[in-house]
Amino acid sequence: MNHLENNPKVPWDDLRYIFGDIMYGGHVTDFFDRVLVANYLNAYLCDELLEGFEIFPGCKTPQNSGNSKDILEHIDTAFPQESPTAFGLHPNAEIGFRLMQAGTMFSNLRELQPRGGGGGGGMSVVEKAAAMVEEIGGMLPDQFDMLDIMDRAPEVRTPYVNVFLQEIERMQELMGEMKRSLAELTLGLRGDLQITDVMDSLMSSLADGLRPPGWDKFAYPSKRGLGSWVRDMISRQQQLADWTGEMNVPKSTCLSYLFNPQSFLTAVMQTTARQNDWPLDRTVTQTDVTKKFDLSELPGPSKDGAFIHGLYMEGARWDDKAGTVEDSRPKELYAKMPIVLIKAAQFTGEKLKDTFECPTYKTQDRGPTFVFNAGLKTKAPSSKWILAGVGLLMDVAF
Length: 398
Prior knowledge:
Blueprint lengths: L1 H5 L5 H12 L7 H14 L9 E3 L2 E2 L7 H11 L13 H21 L12 H15 L6 H7 L6 H32 L6 H12 L4 H4 L9 H21 L6 E2 L6 H16 L6 E7 L16 E4 L2 E3 L2 E3 L4 E3 L7 E3 L3 E7 L8 E7 L8 E8 L4 H6 L3 E3 L5
Parallel strand pairs: 3-5, 11-13
Antiparallel strand pairs: 1-2, 4-10, 5-10, 6-9, 6-13, 7-8, 11-12
Helix pairs in contact: 6-8, 6-9, 8-9
């Protein structure tokens, strides 16, 4: 602190390096966390820090403070209560945090409930599970006829055809496991088979409205409850079933419905690279957000890439009229994105101006569910959206 007081020219770059790379940065392993840390340091470790600038609404740094004692006293007396805006987040972040806390509390209460019979008029675990087995079993569609699909598949398979065939194989495995385990549990509930630990786990999950761990092994990342998850899975299966009709690229693909959305993005790059004789390792994706929300507004598939939909923005919203990222509306936690055109281009190493590289994730957990960076137009500096934790999500558990 004395160093800062006695030297009008503060070595901010050195301080950012000490905090961001040595003292604290070494504990940060996620790339996007490092970006966030760097932006916090760039925002706060600057000359204005010593001149009384507003760190966040209602909180200013002490102006021309003489010593560290005055600064500590200012922190104790002038700093308001913690709020999302103090960290650069939108006030909506408080709502999301409280909802997460409530969800955790109710989950813990559910686990503390007795697992016995249905005394007092309620259904027992066995009765709840049996009802769910019947309900889900009646909802599941027939599995794909792989022999027919492979016979009708074109001999020269495009990257898109390979992607959808791989997706169908993954869906076959998931639906096969669901039907097998439900049939096995039915026999166990009837007394025809002994209830094993695996069957007991399935029964408990179905009774509690949770996704069975045995199904998750074959499924995709999701935070949905059982009922919503089953309906979502059926929608995913329907997209694949629609593709098997003519086996052409859909007018717009719901990227959120794919087990491996990265493979679809790679297919876009492969197709464009082959057409233009580009090296694939020097090809990247570009995003062009349209003003269309309804698929009926699209005349057909794009000839210059592929249309995708099913994305939501958290931490901000997309202004379809201005064509830029803007602040969230109050109480709107997840803003639906318009249809997006994914194109391929050659990598030049140059950063696009007025563009925010928005990370896209499969679920609200983010982290290991990262898919790709979507370049979105912005009038505000990218640092604003980084500090606000803005990201695109493919699967949102409302």
